[in-house]
Amino acid sequence: MSRFSSIALAAAFAFGASSAAHAVDLVAVGQLSGTIADRSSETAGKLENGVPGNLLGGFGSGMTYAGCETFLAVPDRGPNAVSYNAAIDDTASYINRFHTLHLHLSSAPAGSALPLTLSPELRATTLLHTNDRLVYGSGAAAGVPDGAPALNRTHHTHYFTGRSDNFDPAKPSSNPLDARLDPESIRVSNDGESVYISDEYGPHIYRFDRRTGRRIDVIRVPESFAVSTLSAMGSHEISENTSGRVANKGMEGLAIAPDGKTLFGVMQSPLLQDGGTSGSLTRIVRIDLRSGKTQQFAYPLTNIGTAAKPKYPTISEAVAVNDHQLLIDERDGKGFGDDSSASFKKIFLVDLAGAQDVSQASGEAGLAPYALTKTLFLDVVATLGKHGIAPTEIPAKLETLTFGYDVTIGGVKKHTLFIANDNDFIGTVTDTHHPNGASNPNQFFAFAFDTAELPSFEPQHLHGRVCRGGHHDHDHDE
């Protein structure tokens, strides 16, 4: 008997004829406006750069399924795409948070381009904080206000923010008392009581109470991922260090095994000692949550340049297929929002079973013999293009991957995979492709696939909540 009960959605028609050749296909799209506020009214005041502190945006950085039709999504470090002060990388005192979303799939009207309709709804916003005394920047060097949020005094706690100068310069970037946090992925624990969030600044993986947003644990990652010389400017951190993560390209992806006992963290780009952004092999770290033991694996990036001038994409996300296989999202930064055309946004399947632990290896030559083998699971640009979405309209920053609940289309049961964009908190885009301006919402793309396409897929064992129809999470198909 399956752990998950199926939500049957009777579509007006099955996939088109093209779907026979493309087992993974787009079934629905949805959006939330990029110009509205989130549910945290206490942070509504303007940030240092003039942007409202509760603007709903950026949460395509990371999203996870939490059972029933509930998803959690995490924005990154805030609206730093707005020019403000280069000395702090245009970051502001945006208080980090995650959102609770309800994503409802239903049958589309007859004659619709896609079989399902996706209706997103924002249910809640939870601010991230800790009882520990955090380090905030004075702002003096950059001529900006103190980096501590005023809400600290109101609630007698310490909030994490995106300000790049909120760190202790005497300690390495792995210091968990730094107040700066750049969240990039979120996963929920199997009991539904807490969430794991990855951070690029450290890099870190923190565990927060899902109800209150209070940090309850620090998941240690290898010290070799940290940098020793810190700066409020990412370019300076890169130039002043020879080892550790590349600034703004740290712990980007986070996956959790179906049994909830293992986390997988994925570095966006290779470590400095492995070649940095010129390297072709980045790292996946597997963390046993009970013992804290870690293993590292070498993931090969695709050359999207030429043999003479190789150029590599970055990894945006990972999701666990089972306890040893992952789907990895590699992408360029091209498309809508970048005034360019999307070209390379692909999802690959990798298997860590039997792979060599490269914790002691360093450099391209040291990692290359142990590179994982990957196979293409989904070409996002090609699939969206098949449905009439032009490369100039595909969001440049499609950064999430999460499985969802099962659906039935044309009498066939299918699994779902959701991808969302990071709109950089920019609600309207005006560029050469959109000279009159175009809305830049928070977008969701729902894909469906057959069991045959991913036969080893095992949904996360979520427990505790009653879903539609009286079923519990552990009886609900994902």
Write the topology of this structure.
Blueprint: E1 25-32, E2 62-65, E3 70-74, E4 97-107, E5 116-127, E6 129-130, H1 151-155, E7 158-159, E8 183-188, E9 194-199, E10 204-209, E11 215-219, H2 234-239, E12 251-256, E13 262-267, E14 281-288, E15 294-300, E16 314-320, E17 325-331, E18 345-351, H3 363-367, E19 374-379, H4 380-386, E20 402-403, E21 407-409, E22 412-420, E23 428-431, E24 434-439, E25 442-449
Antiparallel strand pairs: 1-25, 2-3, 3-4, 4-5, 6-7, 8-9, 9-10, 10-11, 12-13, 13-14, 14-15, 16-17, 17-18, 18-19, 20-22, 21-22, 22-25, 23-24
Return residue spans where pLDDT drops below 50 for at least 5 consecutive residues: 1-22, 469-478
The proportion of strand residues reads 25-35%
| Assembly level | single chain
Order of helices and strands: EEEEEEHEEEEEHEEEEEEEHEHEEEEEE
Overall average pLDDT: 92
What percent of the residues sit in helical stretches (DSSP H or I)? under 10%
General form = globular
CATH topology: Neuraminidase
Largest sheet: 5 strands, antiparallel
- Taken together, the total number of domains comes to 1
Rg, nearest Å: 21 Å
CATH architecture: 6 Propeller
Number of strands: 25
**Cα end-to-end separation:** 14 Å
Helix vs. strand class: mainly beta
CATH class: Mainly Beta
Compute the number of helices: 4
Short account of what is shown:
This protein is 5% helix and 32% strand. The chain has helices at residues 151-155, 234-239, 363-367, 380-386; strands at 25-32, 62-65, 70-74, 97-107, 116-127, 129-130, 158-159, 183-188, 194-199, 204-209, 215-219, 251-256, 262-267, 281-288, 294-300, 314-320, 325-331, 345-351, 374-379, 402-403, 407-409, 412-420, 428-431, 434-439, 442-449. 51% of the residues are buried.
